[in-house]
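Re: weekly structure request thread

Next one in the queue (145 aa):
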Amino acid sequence: MKIAEVLKAKPEGGVITITPDAGVRELIALLAEHNVGALIVSADGETVDGIVSERDVVRHLHHDGTVINNTVGAIMTDVVETCAPTDTLDDLMEIMTRRRFRHVPVVRDGKLVGIVSIGDVVKHKLSQLQFERDQLDSYVHQGGH
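Done, posted below.
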């Protein structure tokens, strides 16, 4: 399965982004409003400048209680692993597992076209396994013909 298929099945239309100069309070509000764990940081809404997650907020909060008054740019990860719509789900799973990422932006020709979360990966893997199980079940009950 290709990443493009995973994106097609997602309910939301676009990718939610936040600018690097936005405040951490705004970030928290957007994460809560959209019920997501990370946002792509982008000055123009098309290029990936970074990624920022709930974990980033919590880690910084642990060291500095005033992080809430800071900007997204101060806490974001600016070296971002991305994938392409033509990449396979299995390849992305391997990257997410090995690098311990929960969110990977999807980029085509340098432009942001989506984001895939670990939840998306699990959902598609489960439906794939269910389909395979149903196929095997059907095969077995038809006597193997």
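The first strand starts at residue 17 and ends at 18. The radius of gyration is 18 Å.
Next request, please.
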